[in-house]
Amino acid sequence: MKRNLVKLRLIVLLWWATAASTLVAAESQTLATKQRPEDPTIKGEEKAVLTQAPFVPPPSTRQHATKVIVHLEVIETTRQSADGVEYVFWTFGGEVPGSFIRVREGDLVEFNLLNHPTSKMPHNIDLHAVTGPGGGATSSFTAPGHRSQFSFKALNPGLYVYHCATAPVGLHVANGMYGLILVEPKAGLPRVDREYYVMQGEFYTEGRYGEQGLQPFDQRKAEDERPSYVLFNGAVGSLVGDKALKAKVGEKVRLFVGNGGPNLVSSFHVIGEIFDTVYQEGGVLPSQKQVQTTLIPAGGSAIVEFGVEVPGTYVLVDHSLFRAFNKGAVGMLKVEGPENLMVYTGKEVDAVYLGSLAEGGSAAGRKVAELEAARKAAMQKNETIAGLTKEIQIARGKQVYLQTCFVCHQTEGQGIPSQIPPLGKSDYLMSDTHRSIRAVLQGLSGEIVVSGKTYNGTMVPLNNLSDHEIANVLTFVRNSWGNNGEAVSAEEVKRIRSELPKTVTTSFE
Length: 509
Ligand SMILES: [Cu+2]
Hints:
Blueprint: H1 2-33, E1 42-47, E2 65-82, E3 85-92, E4 101-104, E5 108-115, E6 126-127, H2 137-140, E7 146-153, E8 158-163, H3 169-174, E9 178-184, E10 194-203, E11 213-214, H4 219-223, E12 229-232, E13 245-248, E14 252-261, E15 266-271, E16 275-279, E17 288-291, E18 293-296, E19 300-307, E20 312-318, H5 321-327, E21 330-336, H6 362-380, H7 383-409, H8 427-431, H9 433-442, E22 444-445, E23 448-450, E24 453-455, E25 458-459, H10 467-477, H11 490-499, H12 502-507
Parallel strand pairs: 1-2, 2-5, 3-11, 4-9, 10-14, 13-21
Antiparallel strand pairs: 2-3, 5-7, 6-8, 8-9, 10-12, 14-19, 15-18, 15-20, 16-17, 16-19, 20-21, 22-25, 23-24
Helix pairs in contact: 6-11, 7-10, 9-11, 10-11
The chain binds copper (II) ion.
């Protein structure tokens, strides 16, 4: 395996060494022989404003075409794709997705592709907005430490994907080499209050979702189209918590949504919203109104617009739901503002309907308590280790919380009055660790009293979470929003899981 890699590197090195020398030679030739004829429609020039997702450059106020100079740098970089999970991303502009480029129909785009000297691979760019062979790919093949330049006229307005097209193309795209370029129609797009950039892409790693450490690319999984991650903007949690998209009640939001693939088609949906307008496949005609879910092909895009009338958290998903809840394709839009009861009342009636799922066994609970006490005593002897482990668990647990629990218990653990109990300052949570582990493993229903208030709802079992995930998320909630408690260990969770009645645990696995 290692030896093969070395061999591959050598071949690649040789390949770009030759490619680079041809390029240098080609450049002097190109400069000598190819002269772009004067274009009377182009007035002046400007440097393109590039932004990283989720941000979008401002619309142009120009009434004429100009020469827009783009400098896009390719950087190969190791980054977190999820908490504790690293991946070597190949990027346009240092991030996944690549920088957003915005030009106007009729502009002359002078495109400069720079490949950072620390890169190991040559790269190029195929912009779907280009009319010309390879969308620019053939003119932009660039060895590490080199720059290529070519120019194109943005003839067709629309929202276009760009991506690397260097062989093996699938690998370059799978490593994150894609982004969006908007060629705005001459008349511009209708005015909105907020514009954001969201791009989906899937990742194929040797480890399963969440497996810690630096994860190598898995060619076999890529061929079989079995990704371990399906992500918005290149990382699990890139659009949740304090990184969520923001808007205010009454505003109009426009999302420029792309799909880098390399394989999957996205069923893009915002939970709790209806797209007032969709520009299907990134074209410039508002092609459909009142859409729930829009398909975005691999290597394609869509523009969606909607007004936000009701405050709250709206969740962006790929509605192929296991991708959302098990592979990372979740983002959030947080809308602030006054309640709007005319449009949405919140829950009005909460009557018991579901049969109750009993709480966990009691004899088993006692035995666990004894073992637990012994373990805790042993652990407390080494405080530094205990403290550090806890910090790490809290950080990891936050990720689990923001993916699994926040939908009900809300982002700040505040719950929903008379429906979902709070986790912040919850005596129910803090007084009995084992009970809270069982709550997650088995679910919880029937009347409970949390900090003096009675709740009678149903929490579904969440035993698809691993022992580590449950331990971490409980450690996080037991140490957030005013809570201050001991860490919960994966061993504790494992033990309790193994002692639960089998009928409950297995039916959800
Ligand atoms: Cu590339």
